[in-house]
């Protein structure tokens, strides 16, 4: 099995995949996603989380870049799944990003501020906010790419229809 050294602990990619799969699927249930989408959502979230862990802790990317690339992969998987299964992309993407959400950073930042450690609390909250921005940016980039591809496909279809109408006259 592939183990990944992270500070004082070892991360097993298989266990990271399995736990994030179940966390994602559980949030899919909580958000009342269709039952047939839960497995796909779980896989999308697990792949995103494993990519984040790989980039952040193994390859040394900062958390902004790791979150951005993981969010791009999650959005890509969600948009492809939406097209394949003829479902809205949101039923895949919302549970899929749950493992990336920097909730611990928000909690730790607020705890530091409550304990009057303003400098550390502010730095921690700023990191959590930039991580959130990276997730949103990654999702937006991939969604925009799919929207442009969809628009260009629709434009080609309209042009073909127009050519057909013009050639009949």
Secondary-structure blueprint of this entry?
Layout: E1 3-6, E2 9-12, H1 13-30, H2 38-58, H3 63-85, H4 90-97, H5 103-114, H6 118-168
Antiparallel strand pairs: 1-2
Helix pairs in contact: 1-2, 1-4, 2-3, 2-4, 3-4, 3-6, 5-6
State the main characteristics:
single chain; 169 residues; mainly alpha; two-stranded antiparallel ribbon; disordered N terminus
Condensed summary:
This protein is mainly alpha-helical. 79% of the residues lie in helices and 5% in strands. The relative contact order is 0.11.
Helical content (DSSP H or I, runs of 4+): over 70%
Poorly predicted runs of 5 or more residues: 1-9
Q: How would a textbook summarize the main sheet?
A: 2 strands, antiparallel
* Shape, principal axes of CA atoms: elongated
| Structural class by secondary-structure content | mainly alpha
Q: Kindly, what is the distance between the CA atoms of the first and last residues, rounded to a whole number of angstroms?
A: 68 Å
Strand order of the largest sheet: 1-2
Number of helices: 6
Q: What is the tally of beta strands?
A: 2
**Would you list the SSEs in sequence order as H and E?**
EEHHHHHH
Q: Determine the mean pLDDT.
A: 89
């Amino acid at each position: 099995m592939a183990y990944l050294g992270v500070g004082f602990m070892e991360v097993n990619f298989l266990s990271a995949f399995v736990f994030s799969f179940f966390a994602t699927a559980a949030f899919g249930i909580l958000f009342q996603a269709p039952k047939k989408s839960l497995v796909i959502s779980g896989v999308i979230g697990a792949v995103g989380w494993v990519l984040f862990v790989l980039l952040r802790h193994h390859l040394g990317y900062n958390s902004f870049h790791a979150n951005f690339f993981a969010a791009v992969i999650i959005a890509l998987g969600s948009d492809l799944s939406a097209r394949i299964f003829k479902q809205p992309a949101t039923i895949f993407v919302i549970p899929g990003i749950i493992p990336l959400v920097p909730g611990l950073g928000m909690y730790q930042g607020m705890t530091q501020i409550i304990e009057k450690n303003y400098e550390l609390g502010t730095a921690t909250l700023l990191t959590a906010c930039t991580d959130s921005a990276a997730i949103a940016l990654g999702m937006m980039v991939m969604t925009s790419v799919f929207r442009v591809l969809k628009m260009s496909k629709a434009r080609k279809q309209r042009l073909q229809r127009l050519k057909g109408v013009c050639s009949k006259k």
